[in-house]
Design goal:
alpha/beta; two-stranded antiparallel sheet; single chain
Amino acid sequence: MFDKNGDVVFETDEKGRMLLDALGEPVVKTKDVMRRVERVHVTKATRDAVIFEDVDTGLSRYPIAWGNWERQKNQYHGRALVTGLVPNQIFINTMFAMAMRHLQLMGFPKTVYNADLIGNWSNEVGQAIGVRGLQPGQSISQVAYNLQPADMSNQILTMIDRAVAYTKDCMGATDAQLGNVKPDRLHEPERLQWLQLNSAGADAYVKPGILRSTTMLTSATGAYGKAVAEHSFAMLLMLQKKLNLTEKEFMQGIKRLVFRMLPIREPAAIRRSFR
């Protein structure tokens, strides 16, 4: 421990004599900074005032905090914010995986050939395929033919895109953006509800085709008024007092004074003094 003057405090007995340890050194007085309690105490305070302090809650263990989310019938804690979006994500993942599997299996045509006329079929590039027993007038198309795979419906990809868009709408994605985002890099401006700019001007964002008519656009008009006014007023005072000219004359006066103080030398010596 330390006293109010910052000096170390040592242990003493009942008569005020300093206690020594086994090595004969004075024992430094210590203070218990932790105390064992059997119940949970709570204190509530603000920055400038204490509302209540060291109140015994009567609990022997700390309570577990929970958060109530979206209300749902027969559920005390409610439903998490993303619980309703889980089926959408499962659908998107499943459909996208099926589309990828379809491309793997059906993306390339299948070749059907007459095994009586072609002994061995080869898919190597530039490899010749021999045909035996072709009858006169028989078309080569009757020897081998490529079966075109069935096309995947475009509705699958369209439905995936719509599911992603609807899921983002339900999540409130890109509802608002803060900062001077480049107009050509606004992420999905059709879903943007509010854009707050850091600058006072908004000319680049009011052009047709940049934002929807229903999107709220706000700027920092008035935030820089005081700073700009102070700067303008300081410039007026500088011009009124001709401080810019005074600075030039001051520097020229210093140069003339230095030349007067220098001894008479050759021009080359003077140039070397100012190097």
